[in-house]
Amino acid sequence: MIAGGSPSSGPTRVLVTDAGRGSAISVIRSLGRAGMEVIAADTTPRSAGFRSRFATRTLVYPEPSAAPEQVVELLLGEARAGRVDLIIPVSDDVLLPLSAARERFAGLCALAIPAPEALEQVADKAATVALARRLGVPVPRTAVVRTAAEAAAAGPELGWPLVVKPSRSRLVSAEGIERFEVSYAESPEVLQARMERLGGRGEVLLQEYLAGEGHGVELLLSDGEPLLAFQHRRLHEVPITGGASALRESVPVDPVLLGHATRLMRELRWTGLAMVEFRVGADGPTLMEINGRIWGSLPLAVKSGADFPLGLARLTLGQDPAPAAPPRAGVRSRNLGLELVWIASVLRKQRRYPFLASPPRSAGVRAALRLANPRDGFDVLCRDDLSPGLADALQVTGRLLGKATHA
User: Out of 2.30.30.240, 3.40.50.720, 3.30.70.270, 3.30.470.20, which CATH number does the structure's domain 114-138+211-334+336-377 have?
Assistant: First the structure.
C-alpha cells in the first residue's frame, strides 16, 4: 500500500480526480469495469467524466491552482466520512498538494501517490538530470542557472537554439499553484528576456535542442521493480516543437529504453505509475524527463491491453496486480482537442518559433482528413460509454468557436 488505510467491505470505492481529462476517464472506465465503485471528481459539474456510466457518484471541488488547501480539505472530508477507500490524483495540481498532506490521510484511505522523496526527485528536473548522469543514462548537454547573467555565460557554450526549461513546472504555496512552461531561445537577447520573465523564481535548465521522435516508456512499479511496461511513440505533439502528445501509437518495448528507465526507477525505489520520456534521434535516445503522475496518453496504453489503472489500484490497496497479456503494438489514439490544435498550428502561417523545424502544411491537411479514420481512434470516444466522448467533443467545439469568435 502506498499510503492510507484499508478498504471497506463491499466494492472498493475509488475517487478519481480531474475527471474531465481523457486519462482520468480511462481510469474511471477501467476500475468501473472491474467492479469498483468510482467517484468522479472535478472542478466543474460539466466534466465529461461525470457522464460516464461507470461513475457511481460525482464530486465537485474548487480550482486547485487557486485553492489547493480547500481541495485537500474536501477530499479529507470524504475520507473521514468513510466514503472512499482509495484516491487517485490525476493532475499535478491535485497530486502535489495531496502529497504534502499525505500524513493527514493515514488510517482513513489509501492514496495512489509515490513516496515523497521519489516524487521530489522527479519534480525537480535538475535533480533528475543529475541522477541520470550518475547512472549513465544519456541526457542533453545541460547548464543549471538562476540569473540572466549566469544564463548569458552558459548559453553560447551549448549552442543555439536553446531549450529554456524551469526546473519545476509547478510551485505550490498557500496562495495557489504557479505554473511554468518550457520555451526556446535563438539568441543571447532572447535568452535574457526569457530569464527576466522567470524573475529568479527558481533554477532553470538550459539544454541543447535535440531533434528526434518522442517516446514514452510507461511503467507500473513496486519498490522500483517493473510489474508492467508499455511504450508509445508520439506522432503529433502540442506544441509542435515538443510537448504533450496529440496523436500517438503503441510500439514494442525497446530494451535499451526500458533499461534506462528501469535503472532510474530502481534507484528511486519507485512505487506506482511513471512515464520516462525520451527523444530518439540520429545519435540514439536521450532522456527528457520523468513524469511522476498519470500521463495524458494513458488511454492508448489501456486500449492496447496495458491496464495500468487497475494494476495501480490493486497495488496501492495491497493486492497483487493481476498478470497481464503483452500489450498490442500498432494501436493509435488521439486527443481530439490537442489534435485540432496541432492541425491548426501546422496550417498557420506564423510560427512561435520559426527557427525550429516544423511539419509541412501538407501534414496538417492529411491529419485533418484522417480525423474520421477509425484506425486512429480517440482517447475519450468509446462504444460502450458514449456520453463522455460526446460531451468532450461538444466542449472542444465550444472552445474552438469561442476562439474563432474572439479572433
Answer: 3.30.470.20
In this structure, what are the phi and psi dihedrals at residue 388, rounded to the nearest 5 degrees?
-60, -40
pLDDT digits (tens, 9 = 90+) for 217-234: 999 999 999 999 999 999
In angstroms, what CA-CA distances link 254 with 20, 23, 177, 329? 32, 24, 36, 12
Tens-place pLDDT, residues 299-327: 999 999 999 999 999 999 999 887 678 89
- pLDDT tens track for 235-294: 999 999 888 999 999 999 999 999 999 999 999 999 999 999 999 999 999 999 999 999
**Among all chains, which residue has been given the C-alpha cell 490524483?**
89
Nearest to 19 by CA among 69, 82, 89: 89
Per residue in 287-313, is it b (16+ CB within 10 Å) or e — as a string? bbbbbbbbbbbbbbbbbbebbbbbbbb
Cβ(231)–Cβ(194) below 8 Å: no
pTM of the model: 0.94
Of 393, 344, 398, 395, give the one whose Cα is nearest residue 368: 344
Q: Is the bond preceding 64 in cis, omega lying within 30 degrees of 0? A: no
- On the CB side of 126, CA atoms within 13 Å amount to 13
Name the amino acid, one letter, at 175. Answer: E
Which element (helix H / strand E) includes 79?
helix 68-80
- What sign does the dihedral 73-78-80-81 (CA atoms) show? positive
Residue 90's φ and ψ, nearest 5 degrees, are -105, -40
Q: Nearest CA to 288 among 121, 163, 135? A: 163
Overall fold of domain 141-208: Dna Ligase; domain 1 (3.30.1490)
Distance CA 286, CA 260 (A): 10
Class of CATH domain 13-113: alpha beta
